[in-house]
Amino acid sequence: MTILSFLSRASRGFQGYTACSKLLILCTLSSGGLVAYSESHPDTGTPGVDPNQKELKKKRVLVLGTGWAATSFLKDLDASLYDIQVVSPRNYFAFTPLLPSVTCGTVEARSIVEPIRNIVKKRRGEVNFWEAECLKIDAANKKVLCRSKIENNLVGNREFSLEYDYLVVAVGAQVNTFNTPGVEENCHFLKEVEDCQKIRRTVIDCFETAILPHLTEEERKRNLHFVIVGGGPTGVEFAAELHDFFEEDLSNLYSTVKDLVKITVIQSGDHILNTYDERISSFAEQKFNRDGIDVQTGCRVVSVSDKEVTMKLKAKGEVCSIPHGLVVWSTGVGTRPVVKDFMEQIGQGNRRVLATDEWLRVKGYKDAYAIGDCATIDQRKIMEDISSIFKAADKDNSGTLTVREFKEVIDDMIIRYPQVDLYLQNNHLSGVTDLLKDPDGHDREEVDIEQFKLAFSHVDSQMKSLPATAQVAAQQGAYLSRCFNRQQQSQDNPEGPRRFRGSGRHKFRPFRYKHFGQFAPLGGDQAAAELPGDWVSVGHSTQWLWYSVYASKQVSWRTRMLVVSDWTRRFIFGRDSSRI
Amino acid sequence: MTILSFLSRASRGFQGYTACSKLLILCTLSSGGLVAYSESHPDTGTPGVDPNQKELKKKRVLVLGTGWAATSFLKDLDASLYDIQVVSPRNYFAFTPLLPSVTCGTVEARSIVEPIRNIVKKRRGEVNFWEAECLKIDAANKKVLCRSKIENNLVGNREFSLEYDYLVVAVGAQVNTFNTPGVEENCHFLKEVEDCQKIRRTVIDCFETAILPHLTEEERKRNLHFVIVGGGPTGVEFAAELHDFFEEDLSNLYSTVKDLVKITVIQSGDHILNTYDERISSFAEQKFNRDGIDVQTGCRVVSVSDKEVTMKLKAKGEVCSIPHGLVVWSTGVGTRPVVKDFMEQIGQGNRRVLATDEWLRVKGYKDAYAIGDCATIDQRKIMEDISSIFKAADKDNSGTLTVREFKEVIDDMIIRYPQVDLYLQNNHLSGVTDLLKDPDGHDREEVDIEQFKLAFSHVDSQMKSLPATAQVAAQQGAYLSRCFNRQQQSQDNPEGPRRFRGSGRHKFRPFRYKHFGQFAPLGGDQAAAELPGDWVSVGHSTQWLWYSVYASKQVSWRTRMLVVSDWTRRFIFGRDSSRI
């Protein structure tokens, strides 16, 4: 316990007695003895105390998850303002964009994880972390039921419940198998650190089995056929890593079977990396072609057995099977059962994904927020509010909007409806007055309500949901922590846009995602990158850009050092093929 | 495949046709094409070929194991002389003295392992490795039955058998539970890399469970009670590591429960580290006492349940139980079932451990060698041969031995019976003539057979079996590889001592262990060391000596770099407490 947290705890006890409190601080600062005491007997009584029974002067914030969104939220949250509890089955944050590198030992698993207690311990005030899974959110009673996942002889009640004033749901998504038979049982996934460690061991198993004496050529080939389902960034990166691992390290050690190795990527769309720029997608396909990685596009996997993957060629409708030694399923995101159950409680049962408003507040339930992959922002359509906007803008109640009147509201409109900004950008409209031009392109002095509606009629089509990426989750976490930290200030000085349906201003500006680009490492120390401003960069220099960006984005100096030294180690000595 | 191995393979095919063979080498060296061919299509057909069906001009050496003894043997073995196969369930060599450091993350598991294929690939000629467990040695038919341990969907026959001309048994020992009830089910061990990873996860589990809300103080204490059974070097080092891990890293992160942690070492003897010098043993006890590690000596564990350890205090005969969160069993070595079965086949069924002679040849079975923890050297007693020695030395058949006659055989005696040397050293006898002194200490010119026997009557009591350490195993492996490499030369020029029961000389000198001292790291960057020449060193400087010795002893530059960078990382950032 730090001295600060001791003081804050002590002063909480004296709340209301300001003089006493000041006296205590004075005593403390002038007395080494008291400080020493606080250092040597910190908190001994606390563990036995029910966290729900604490003096609850501060609002209780309960965070579910320790992924990108939750960690980013916790890192910036001012812990002196709230009583913070975190529940997650993982006591660490994992730098997920490097998971494909972990599968082949380019980077070690421990190099990309940081204990959540380390991340939050520096905060002013206290953050309690419980390693447990959230089983159920009891929305009506503002409670969460949790269970520790540790399965051994340790004693104590595994289930406990926690109360909250504010709930932050950041549990992430789970793999979506689309109910394909056999996927759950026979495929590897690429979601958790443990998944990657398992894949790494299995790859070595495939080679060690294939090289054993007395096998037929066909058996060896089957064991050395690696199949990746899903041609998105994760699947493609894993295929590239696996190819490098084999080419650079394993082929020397298992030279007698090296000609039997095959890697196949199965993609349902027409191209791999189809969320990227077309140039990247075709660069990747050409690179894979040169590397001998087989890309099967337009194929849908219909079932996976322990020995074969069965797929349907979309174009011809044919069904064919390929033998495999390892299948990695890296496609689709699904909603976790606990979130699904929560959605049913709050009237979102018909939706596929938990919806929030633009301030990341869960729709239909007060005091819950949802960030990261577990939720999606339900962006309000401008057409729903168009009449209110017109009314608010038309100050003189003339029934028409002058350019001046329009200019007065447009900034607030852009903040409240980000699709307006996107529409202007995508249609290369220089200013807002361009919106009010008549169909022939002439400037207009005034528009009436119908003309106004017409001007915005295509704007809503620009709306699209944000991708399920680390970048989005991290920005949402940071945004939300700022809202929490400024709760009090914004009450008096709202900083958000004008309320078109109501009076005054919104407390905060809505969340706005800023896209910084995305990378796709393609193996052989080459990468492709989509950078802001429609820039595309491919090749070796892009890989070095990737190295610098990923090193700089590490959550701690420890992981940064470890990741960089892992890369160095790989350059000098290659990857380790020990089966541990 | 290297060019060299290609050449040797090709020339094997032409054996007997020396001219042809020379021509082929000439062609090969002058033709880039042929070399290029050998580089691009190496061995494709080999995997399908039954290794027992190969052209067997060279003697087949089958090595069981990839531990210290086997690896040290393989490293130095000249692979061009033999057809070498290695079978082990682990495809890597582990630097076992650092296992206790792995349990708490001071060093990472991957930093102390090196793939066996990497170690042996540099050898001239080829070494085949199969990742499989040896199920049975068929001594009569010179065959070994193996089974792959990989349990997944991979195809191929898991069982196969291998033939050998020479068998090198280096499978190590297994944990000995002394049939104590509950040990197998409820204890952790410290033998394999996986054991250490499991302990590391369980330690974090104990803390994560103990800190959960709604537990009683007693439950928290139970979960945080770490019990180590066995006060040998491994147990003591683990206790020290655990104490450091807690003090330096965990106590800050789990501050609310830090006063409840307890570490107990249970030792059946009167002191911990009782194979070490007394000074080290008492230094360790004092250090543990200061650190608050509870050392219970004179206690024998009678049973272990999932919640309690029951032990008997030897002195009082009392039985008491202590609750635990984690028990590590680090005492006793036992014989593996496969070795036990082999012993029964070769008439060693009554022995506890596989016996070899001083040349490491398995007793009672030709062409098998045993090295490392799985075997013990059955040193021949000098008294068994005393008459033959006398006869051989008494060249003039006078019935008495002059000093000159004695001096002529003493060197060979010392080589053949190392206990003579030990006896001289331990009794501070300056020369061999001291041995022949009469009971009053006067020099004698001649001794008869009875006086000769009397002189050596106490020598055999100096014999003791070698400890089950990495140092012994490594020296045995290196010794045996030298014997294998010099098989041919020694046939013509025997280098061993005179045969007292028979004519001529032994082919090789018997194995002689050279003790370089031993370390005991005690935590808090302090260590104790027993160095050659009855030197004892304790404290911080010894820990630095430990660092240098252990870094220099690493099997590869890769692991050396990793171990050193792990230590550096620990100094700067501490140990990682992520539960992966």
| Major sheet details of chain A | 5 strands, parallel
Instruction: Report Rg of chain A.
Output: 28 Å
Shape of chain A: globular
Helical content of chain A (DSSP H or I, runs of 4+): 25-40%
Total E-strand runs of chain A: 26
The pLDDT mean of chain A sits at 87
Distance between the termini of chain A: 38 Å
List unreliable stretches of 5+ residues of chain A: 1-49
Number of helices of chain A: 20
Strand content of chain A: 15-25%
Which assembly state applies to the chains in this document?
A: homodimer
Output the strand order for the largest sheet of chain A: 5-2-1-9-20
Q: Most extensive interface: pair and counts?
A: A-B, 82 and 82 residues
Structural class of chain A: alpha/beta
Structure write-up:
Two copies of one chain form a homodimer. By secondary structure, chain A is of the alpha/beta class. Chain A is 38% helix and 20% strand. A five-stranded parallel β-sheet of chain A has the order 5-2-1-9-20. Chain A has a four-stranded parallel β-sheet with strand order 13-12-11-17. A three-stranded antiparallel β-sheet of chain A has the order 6-7-8. In chain A, β12 (262-266), α11 (278-291) and β13 (294-296) form a beta-alpha-beta unit. At the A-B interface, β4, α8, α9 and α20 of A face β4, α8, α9 and α20 of B.
What is the topological layout?
2 copies of one chain form a homodimer.
Chain A: H1 3-13, H2 18-30, H3 32-40, E1 59-64, H4 68-76, E2 82-88, E3 92-94, H5 99-103, E4 113-115, H6 116-120, E5 127-131, E6 133-138, E7 143-147, E8 159-163, E9 166-169, E10 174-175, H7 183-186, H8 193-210, H9 217-223, E11 225-229, H10 233-253, E12 262-266, H11 278-291, E13 294-296, E14 299-304, E15 308-313, E16 319-323, E17 326-329, E18 333-334, H12 337-345, E19 354-356, E20 368-370, E21 375-377, H13 382-393, E22 400-402, H14 403-416, H15 418-426, E23 446-448, H16 449-455, H17 470-485, H18 487-492, E24 518-523, E25 526-531, E26 535-539, H19 540-552, H20 557-573
